[in-house]
Amino acid sequence: MSIPEVKKLCPCCTPGLKSNQSLLKVDTELGKFYRGPVLAWGGYCGKDDEKKASTLDLGPMDFRHLVDELRLGYSFNEEATRTLMHSKDIYAVRLNCEGDQRFLQRPTMEAVYEQSLVLFTESQVRTPVADRIGIPLIVYKAKPAPVWRDRNLHARMKNHKARMLNPPEQSADTGSLILVRKDGKPLHPTHVHALISYTAVKLVDPTRSPDACITADILHADRVDQVSREDFEHWYHDAWQKYPLHSRFVPSPFDIQEDFHDPAPSISFQI
Question: What mean pLDDT is predicted for residues 183-210?
Answer without folding.
Answer: 93
